[in-house]
Task: structure prediction
Amino acid sequence: MSEFAFAENPNEALLAAFRRHGSGVAVITTVSPEGQPVGFTATSITSLGAKPPLVMFSVARGASSWDAISKASHVAVHTLGAKNLELAKRMAADHTQRFVGDDWKFGPESLPIFESATAIIVCKIREVINIEQNAVVIADVVNGSVGEEDNALLYYRRGYHSPGEALS
Amino acid sequence: MSEFAFAENPNEALLAAFRRHGSGVAVITTVSPEGQPVGFTATSITSLGAKPPLVMFSVARGASSWDAISKASHVAVHTLGAKNLELAKRMAADHTQRFVGDDWKFGPESLPIFESATAIIVCKIREVINIEQNAVVIADVVNGSVGEEDNALLYYRRGYHSPGEALS
Result:
C-alpha cells in the first residue's frame, strides 16, 4: 500500500480516523436533583474490568445532560439493539422530547429505565474527571438485568448499523 | 416485553451487558525505554472531542504492554478494517510474536506503525489514571494519516465482524 504521510492537522486526523471506526451504541440515563428524567445516546461506554465491575463513558460538558450527570449519584446504562434504532435517534435529538413517550419508567435509584434495551446496568458514579470540554465518568456496576436478545446497534460512518456475519 | 428484574450480581450484569454490545477494534503501539516495539489490540478507544483533539483508551495494568505504556510519551492508534483481521488476532495473542513479521516499521516518535491500518493517529500521552486493575490513558492527537478504505472491524459476541447495511 501507499506510504503513510503524517502531515495532516490533528483535528482532521482525529475525525478521519473515527470515521473509519465503529462504536457500540448505548443510552445513559439519570435523574436530576428536581426528579426529572435525563439521558443521552452514548458511543463511548467501555468496560473497565470485572474485578471490581466498572464502566467508563464520556460526556460533553456542554451537553443538556451534563448538569444532571455532574450532580448524580447513579446512572443506568442501556445497551441497544437494532430494534432500539428509534430510541437511539430520539435520545440524540431534541432533549425536551426524549422522555415524552410511555416507553420508560422510574426504576432502581429513581433512574429512568427503557425496558426495550438489550441489557441495563445500574452504576454508582465513583469519579468524574474533567478533560477540557468533556468529562470522563468512572462508575461501579451495582446490578443489572438483560432484556430481549437482539443484534447490537452500532454507529459507523454517521449512521446506524448492526454487525454483519462473523469474520474468520 | 418482560419486566426487568434487577437481581443479578454486578459481575454477571456487566458481562451480560457487554456481550450484547459491539466495539470498534484498534491496535495501539508504543516503544519501550529499551527501544522495543510494544502493542496490543484495544476495543476501548474513544474520541474525547476535537477541540482540542483528544482520545482515551484503557489498558489492564497486568497486560504485557503496561510497563511500556506507563513510561511512554507517545502512542500510535491504528483503526482497523476487515482486511486487518489477522493483525487484530495477532496483537491480542502471544506478545512475543506480535512484531515478528515485516508488516510494520518505526515511524514518528519511534512508534511502531502498521501501514495496513485504515487510519493512524499519533498521540502524546497527557494523563494516565489508575483505576483498580486498569488504567485510563488520555492523549492529545498530534498528527495522523489515513490508509486504504475498508469496512470497519468490530468485536462482538467474542468474535470479529464488520458492520452490515445501514439501518433506517
About this structure: The mean pLDDT of chain A is 95. Chain A touches chain B through 88 residues (CB under 8 Å).
